[in-house]
UniProtKB/TrEMBL annotation:
SUPFAM superfamilies, sorted: Class I glutamine amidotransferase-like
Gene3D superfamilies assigned to the protein according to its UniProt record, in alphabetical order: 3.40.50.880
Record key words, sorted: Glutamine amidotransferase
Protein name per UniProt: Glutamine amidotransferase domain-containing protein, mitochondrial
Domain of life: Eukaryota
């Protein structure tokens, strides 16, 4: 029986199946965007070799959920043309899967179409790493330093940036921010981390006009001017799940530590007041400057000892 089932599964993989999209997309895609204290995630299927990294996606979901934020998942509209067997690291021949169908394996709820994203409905944007970054959200695998970002993904990043909404990215997802917000794309430049810095990574950041900070798994890099937060996650030296989870926890804590970055200001009696984008960004910059001054003062005190 085992041999028969194995043969059948193998045969199925060698025959191009009918796309599930016409039958499943309408049922699996959500149609109503929530508002309030929600954070948007961009994902595309489970698996670091052909989709979004599961550990990074789930860790961020847990950390935001623990702080009272509702996580809303978005996926591009289309089919995953390349599926990888995560045991053998080999590509499954002619196996085509739908982004929304695959993403729901991890999210457990219907994702929204990325094309319908509206920045005003969300407090922040999070992008996990994985092969989706280089195969689906961009064509980096094919074009390398001359890559371009998917039109829908690029628009979401630009909309969040122009709306002064915090953008969080882990692992290799930082290259999307580097490309979209880099000087070569008309931006003012951005500082991120994807972990280590090899020759290919260095050439990439030079090509897009962005800067890279070498950091380890549990570290966080904050670009105060762009409200961009990045952490290496699996791009760091440690691949231990607990370290990746801890690093993403630091990332979430960093952006939530300053409520003004999320557009909220606490008043007397515990009430909360929505701030304008201008107030939010100015208050955030003030806090970062104050923290930098405190850190510099500590260093000066150490030198005196």
């Amino acid at each position: 029986m085992f041999r028969t089932n194995t043969f059948i599964r193998s045969a199925i993989r060698t025959v191009k199946p009918v796309s599930t999209k016409p039958f499943l997309c309408k049922r699996l895609y959500a149609t109503i965007e929530p508002s309030g204290d929600s954070v948007a995630f961009i994902v595309a299927g489970p698996g670091y070799l052909d989709g979004s990294d599961i550990v990074e996606t789930v860790s961020a979901s847990i950390h935001f959920g623990a702080k009272g934020y509702k996580v809303v998942y978005f996926t591009p509209d289309g089919n995953q043309e390349e599926t990888v067997n995560h045991s053998t690291k080999e590509t499954d021949v002619n196996e085509i899967r739908d982004y929304a169908v695959e993403a729901t394996r991890v999210t457990r709820v219907a994702p929204l179409k990325l094309q319908n994203f509206r920045a005003e409905n969300y407090k922040a944007l999070f992008i996990p790493g994985g092969a989706a970054v280089t195969k689906i959200f961009s064509n980096f695998d094919e074009k390398k330093s001359n890559f371009s970002v998917d039109t829908a993904v690029e628009k979401v990043i630009k909309d969040c940036h122009s709306s002064k909404k915090p953008i969080l990215a882990v692992d290799n997802a930082g290259i999307l921010l580097a490309k979209v917000l880099g000087t070569k794309s008309g931006g003012e430049g951005v500082r991120v981390t994807v972990g280590s810095l090899d020759k290919e990574t260095e050439e990439l950041f030079q090509a897009v006009g962005a800067s890279h900070a070498v950091r380890d798994t549990t570290d966080v890099v904050v670009d105060e001017d762009n409200l961009v937060y990045t952490s290496p996650a699996f791009g760091g030296k440690s691949s231990a799940f607990n370290d990746v989870h801890a690093g993403i926890g630091k990332l979430v804590k960093e952006v939530l530590a300053n409520t003004t970055a999320m557009g909220i200001k606490k008043e007397g009696g515990g009430k909360e007041k929505e701030l304008s984008n201008e107030q939010r960004i100015e208050n955030w910059k003030k806090r970062v400057r104050e923290n930098a001054e405190k850190a510099a003062e500590k260093e000066r005190q150490k030198e005196k000892v």
